[in-house]
Recover the amino acids of this structure.
């Protein structure tokens, strides 16, 4: 366990705490850490949760690739978009976060994030799908977009409960659209 002291004020030069402005006590944050700098302890159930997410992502991508969309309009949805869903769910990484400003990406590449964002620009290609299939496609893509952001913001909660719930949502919409 590592102790991190958080000064409440710094000197005008930005170096160290300013004794004239600090509280009479030190604020201390307890941080669990691994033995080596830059390493972290995995969250309880992390490996299982990430493996489940990757499996759900593969299943969702297979389902998207099998959608009855005519070419050329459906080629992007059944190809790059399906690949992005699979990549996003398999690449989840709780270490890809910035605790200071919560700006991490949860392990998902910029390319995959851009492809996931692209579905709203290709709605016309989904015309041949049933309402259930369209709803399932939007739900899967939205989950694949959202879970990395949530993971970067609050990895403990996501690994502990939210990721399993999102995987269950994806399974449910896929089963309902089949």
């Amino acid at each position: 366990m590592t102790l991190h002291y958080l000064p409440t004020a710094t000197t005008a030069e930005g170096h160290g705490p300013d004794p004239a402005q600090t509280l009479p006590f030190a604020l201390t944050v307890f941080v669990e850490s691994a033995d080596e700098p830059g390493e972290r302890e995995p969250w309880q159930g992390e490996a299982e949760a990430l493996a489940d997410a990757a499996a759900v992502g593969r299943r969702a991508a297979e389902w998207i690739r099998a959608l009855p969309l005519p070419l050329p309009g459906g080629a992007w949805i059944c190809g790059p978009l399906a690949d992005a869903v699979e990549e996003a769910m398999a690449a989840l990484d709780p270490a890809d976060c910035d605790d200071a400003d919560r700006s991490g990406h949860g392990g998902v590449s910029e390319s995959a994030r851009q492809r996931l964002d692209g579905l709203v620009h290709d709605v016309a290609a989904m015309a041949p799908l049933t309402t259930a299939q369209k709803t399932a496609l939007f739900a899967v893509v939205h989950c694949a977009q959202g879970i990395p952001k949530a993971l970067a913001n609050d990895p403990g909660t996501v690994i502990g409960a939210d990721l399993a719930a999102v995987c269950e949502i994806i399974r449910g919409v896929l089963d309902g659209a089949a």
Observations:
- Confidence is low (pLDDT under 50) at residues 1-11, 17-35.
- Residues 47 and 159 are 9 Å apart (CA to CA).
- The beta strands are 2-6, 27-31.
- The two ends are 49 Å apart (CA to CA).
